[in-house]
Amino acid sequence: MSNSDNLNISIVTALFNEEESLPELLEWTDSTMRANNFSYEFILIDDGSTDTSWSVIQSLSLKYPVKAVRFRRNYGKSAALYCGFELAKGEVVVTMDADLQDSPEEIPDLYKMVTADGYDLVSGWKKKRYDDKLTKNLPSKLYNATARKVTGIKLHDMNCGLKAYKLEVVKNIEVYGEMHRYIPYLAKVAGFSKIGEKVVIHRARKYGKSKFGLNRFINGFLDLISLWFLAKFGKKPMHFFGLAGTLSFIIGFFTTIYIIADKLITQANGGAYRAVTAQPLFYIALVALIIGMQLFLTGFVAELVTRNSIERNNYKIKEKI
């Protein structure tokens, strides 16, 4: 194995108020791991649960190979996964939800795709879903179509909680904010390009209710734009702001020159003319000039911040000789 603890799999699960599902989840997962002769660890991150989830985890840790972290408050799934990835030591790291909608019986095939087929990351695809079609299925399809277009990663279900990764993948990406939705894109940006997909079974929720609402799709779109921008211009912001500012300034400048020249030529020929400041186009040109200067200065300041960042030369090296 590639790690000192000789573990095949680390299973990372972020949870919030899942006291009813946890015993069944761990029993089911443990029987699957034993049936396939996998050595494993279960890393449970209690994201500020207000029920008895932590007490349940404590009792389960006496029976199963559990590592657990309890947050003082609810920080969100990204924070939980970040901490789980920090603790993971298995050759393959699997993420799954605690609500029993993901089947542990999918793990052996995911493990094989990573170890035998050489994938850096394998994402589940819940082809047949049991969620409400209006509030989840349709927005999810739109969200995934947009994500495929922006990221260039051809996954049908980028936000599926059931995923498998090489250990080095989770050690070389930083999940923050609500970026857990875009871990495949984070992996791609970090240089892990072999990303696969596997159709997985989606089960109806057995206990409780979903912790996510429609606002996740709005936030998800905004996060996608942020990630795209950071990946493309994070280390060279002037290339974006400087270009946009220069174009805006040029448009405003030449429009102003045109207005003044047109007025002078008309005046010289004895024709009727309007004052430059009486023309609406002049104010549009003036706004373009101001916006252009502001964008250019924004790029300049962003460039100064980037060049003084401790992360400016943080490159991911694959191997050395």
Query: What would CATH call the homologous superfamily of the largest domain?
Result: Spore Coat Polysaccharide Biosynthesis Protein SpsA, Chain A
N/C terminus separation: 21 Å
Q: Percent of residues in helical segments?
A: 40-55%
CATH fold description of the largest domain = Spore Coat Polysaccharide Biosynthesis Protein SpsA, Chain A
Low-confidence stretches: none
Whole-angstrom Rg: 26 Å
Mean pLDDT: 86
Tally of domains: 2
Structural class designation: alpha/beta
Overall morphology: elongated
Total helical elements: 10
Strand order of the largest sheet: 3-2-1-4-6-5-7
Number of E-state strands: 7
% residues in beta strands:
5-15%
Protein described:
By secondary structure, the protein is of the alpha/beta class. It has 2 domains: 9-233, Spore Coat Polysaccharide Biosynthesis Protein SpsA, Chain A, CATH 3.90.550.10; 238-307. It has 10 helices and 7 strands. The protein has helices at 22-35, 53-60, 77-87, 107-115, 133-151, 167-171, 183-189, 215-233, 238-268, 280-307, and strands spanning 9-15, 40-46, 66-70, 92-95, 121-125, 163-166, 195-199. It has a 7-stranded mixed β-sheet with strand order 3-2-1-4-6-5-7, with helices on both faces. α1 links the parallel β1 (9-15) and β2. α5 packs parallel to α8 (215-233) and α9 (238-268) packs antiparallel against α10. The protein is elongated and about 95 Å long. The protein starts with 8 loop residues before the first strand and ends in a 14-residue tail after the last helix. The relative contact order is 0.11.
